[in-house]
Amino acid sequence: MRKLSFGSKGFAKRPNCPSSITLLSYIEATVSPLLRQRVGAHVASCDFCGAEMQLLKNYAPIDEGYTPPPPPALIHLLGKIFVSGSASSNRNRQVA
Ligand SMILES: [Zn+2]
To answer: How far is the CA of 68 from the centre of ligand 1 (A)?
Structure first.
């Protein structure tokens, strides 16, 4: 049986690979020029980090200042109607 492999070293993060946080900082250009040079050189020679870099570029984590968009106007209107409908106590008195 043939074993699936990605090169002789294997497709995995190695001890000398930069962390995901470092790669993300590299993408966001918040690393020092020296680190930027090191990470750039590493990514160019490491298949795994190159792939991770692509992933982080395309699917960057949501920043902390993110606020979800407001719900559609129709949902808001339905919510208002629902709340005002349940607030009326006339029906409840008749039942009880
Ligand atoms: Zn690497």
So the answer is: 34
Domain count for the chain:
1
The amino acid present at 90, given as its one-letter code, is N
| Pair 48, 77: CB distance under 8 Å | no
36 CA to centre of ligand 1 in angstroms: 14
* Distance (Å) from CA 60 to ligand 1 centroid: 18
Q: List pLDDT tens digits, range 1-26.
A: 555 555 555 789 999 999 999 999 99
Structural domain of residue 24, as residue ranges?
Answer: 20-95
Q: Residue 56: inside a domain, yes or no?
A: yes
Q: Which of 19, 43, 42, 39 is CA-nearest to residue 31?
A: 39
